[in-house]
Amino acid sequence: MKYFFHIGYKGNQYRGWQRQPNVPNVQAVIEDALGHILKTDVTIMGCGRTDAQVHASQFFFHLEVDNAWDFDMMFRLNKLLPADIAVFEIIPVDPFQHARYDATQRTYDYFIHTYKDPFLGESSAMYLEPSLNLEEMKKAVAIFARHSDFRAFCKSPDKYKHTCCTIFSASLYRNSSGDKIRYQVSANRFLSGMVRFMVGTLLEVGRGKLTVEELEKYMQQRKLPEFVTPAYPQGLYLSKVNYPYLNIPARTDFSSIVQTAEEDWMLV
User: Fold this and answer.
1) C-alpha to C-alpha distance for 112 and 115, rounded to whole angstroms
2) What distance in Å separates the CA atoms of residue 24 and residue 28, rounded to the nearest whole number?
3) What's the predicted TM-score (pTM) here?
């Protein structure tokens, strides 16, 4: 039997999704909890990886077991897991379906607030820069969508066979009061650190330290200037994962304190 688990997690206390020795990670916490419930060693396969302190408001992993359980697994697992990891659904799937390799599209959201707010510090990135030039940032977002090689935005490009990604959509939003910014990007795949480097680049454009013309040249050269650094991790969410056979709406209420009401976001 194979199951897809639809989950979400707050990443502040973890060094990312993937199991690693001697550091807290989401995968190990879930595997240990499932192992305790099923009374056997458990290995799960996630739909991808997230970096340290990055969140996922939608994430999938699969689990294979010899026999179906005869109890409420979701209740038991949620009761055992810490408060920063939630199971939304458990879905029986065909044996050949794969949480990682079958995903055809992933979406990330990055949230910025430009004022100090003690309730947003762990779920959005604070940049005390209320005068960012959003129109120029919008032009930079359009440049991202026209390119396919994102080597310049990858922190470890040599570990990949290639650094090409297909961007399906990329948009910049602001809230009605203009003090929150949201960058959303969907693609067939993402490289390590890619979205945070994208946002770091957008911030430099918004500050006027990098022009859109210069950005175009740097992307063609496949190398960013040294002053561009990745944006803070706590503003980043893996927010949607699509499969040919599974398209579940994202749980927007999971991070509602930062996302605000959906209708409050307006395209720049």
Assistant:
1) 9
2) 8
3) 0.94
Topology of domain 2-93 in CATH is Alpha-Beta Plaits (3.30.70)
CB-count burial class (<10 Å; 0-12, 13-18, 19+) for 241 = buried
Strands (E), the chain: 2-9, 45-46, 55-64, 85-93, 105-113, 125-126, 167-175, 180-187, 236-242, 265-267
- Sorted by where each begins, the domain ranges of the chain are 2-93, 105-254
**pLDDT tens digit sequence for 55-96:** 999 999 999 999 999 999 999 999 999 999 999 999 999 999
Q: Is residue 169 a contact partner of residue 131, using CB atoms and an 8 Å limit?
A: no
Contact 183, 172 (CB under 8 A): yes
Q: Is CATH 3.40.50.300 correct for 105-254?
A: no
The residue with tokens 């077991």 is 65
Q: 174: which 2 tokens? A: 């602001």
Structure tokens given for 37:
């419930």
Sign of CA dihedral 127, 130, 131, 137: positive
Contact 153, 140 (CB under 8 A): no
Q: Encoding tokens for residue 78?
A: 């949620």
CA dihedral 154, 158, 164, 168 (to 10 degrees): -30
Q: Is 39 left (phi over 0), alpha (psi -120 to 50) or beta?
A: left
Q: How far apart are CA 23 and CA 19, in angstroms?
A: 8
Length reported for the chain:
268
Predicted confidence (pLDDT) per residue in 244-262, tens digit: 999 998 776 555 555 555 5
Catalytic residue ranges: 51
